[in-house]
Specification:
The structure is a single chain. With 190 residues, this protein is of the alpha+beta class. The chain has 2 domains: 33 residues; 148 residues, Immunoglobulin-like (Sandwich), CATH 2.60.40. The protein is 15% helix and 39% strand. The N and C termini lie far apart (69 Å). The relative contact order is 0.21.
Length: 190
């Protein structure tokens, strides 16, 4: 009995060591710390019958429509388009945007970088609409929708940002975890 327990413990320690070695190798190869559990830009992450991914991300001034007048944001911001797909064959999902989270709709979106900075979600006013943003929608079986989220722009030293998106936005529990590589050369010239 003791031999079996010892053998299992030995295998578990070897397995954990191999996983940690892979994690360290990935960190060393990229020059950055890895984000375990985070899907890279363009890769899907699934919870239940819903999967999400970063469709695109760009640091830019964003177009906003308010009272039928279009204007561009004063500040350069991080614009992230999220694709949300319902994998169910027979069950519809209701989506409430992460952009519009509040005390009554706790569908949080947290954005942070590899340095430890946190970036706030940017809202423009009750009547303002960011191009590509939706308040919510029904996602029918086998269908996909997209939503645009706006955050403060990352500092130039950031190599990547992670998004932790509450699965409550689609009626599930847990968090969708996404990672976006940041290249400061892509920032618009001010």
């Amino acid at each position: 009995m003791c031999f079996v327990v010892f053998s299992i413990a030995f295998v578990a320690i070897k397995l954990i060591g191999a996983i940690q070695k892979d994690h360290i190798a990935e960190s060393s190869a990229t020059g950055r710390s890895a984000s375990p559990g985070y899907a890279k830009e363009g890769d899907w992450q699934t919870i239940g019958n819903i999967r999400v991914r970063v469709g695109s991300a760009k640091v830019e001034k964003v177009s906003v429509t308010e009272f039928r007048e279009s204007h561009t944001s004063r500040d350069t911001l991080l614009r992230v388009t999220i694709d949300i797909e319902n994998l169910s064959q027979n069950k519809k999902a209701d989506y409430r945007s992460w952009q519009w989270a509040n005390a009554f709709l706790p569908t949080t979106a947290e954005c942070k970088d590899d340095i430890g900075n946190h970036y706030r979600s940017v809202k423009f006013g009750v009547m303002a609409k960011v191009d590509g943003a939706i308040e919510g929608d029904s996602i029918y079986p086998g269908k996909r929708i997209s939503d645009t989220l706006i955050f403060e722009h990352p500092v130039a030293a950031a190599k990547y940002v992670t998004l932790d998106l509450s699965a409550g936005a689609v009626g599930l529990t847990g968090e969708f975890k996404l990672r976006i590589e940041i290249d400061p050369h892509d920032y618009p010239k001010e």
